[in-house]
Amino acid sequence: MLSALAAKTSEVNLKYMRAFAEAWPDTEFVQAVLAQLPWYHQLALLDKLTHQEDRRWYAARAIEHNWSRNVLVMQIESRLLQRSGTTVTNFDISLPLVQSDLVRESDPDPKSCSIS
Predict the structure, then answer these.
(1) What dihedral angle (degrees, nearest 10) is formed by the CA atoms of 30, 22, 11, 70?
(2) Domain YhcG N-terminal: where (predicted)?
(3) Which of 54, 60, 98, 46 is nearest to 79 (CA)?
């Protein structure tokens, strides 16, 4: 029974290691930033986020604010990045200046409290 559990854990960890390598091909970022985060923080980034820019942003904030894994997950699930007003967009390059300004102005207040 114990050996079956160990084999399964190893299989899961191998899958995470592969996902990690695919998600973070930039070894410089891995050494500079991700080396400061525990493994389970990194798993949360892999499990909860699909966009590389979002993962980088949350990783940097987790280090900056010394978040626990649970706080990191809570911040991801509450969409802190979108609420902070620093969301990376391509409005500047994909829309004319007037329209990109209108889109930003019509966007709801990023700091508003959403109750769902």
Answers:
(1) 50
(2) 10-83
(3) 54
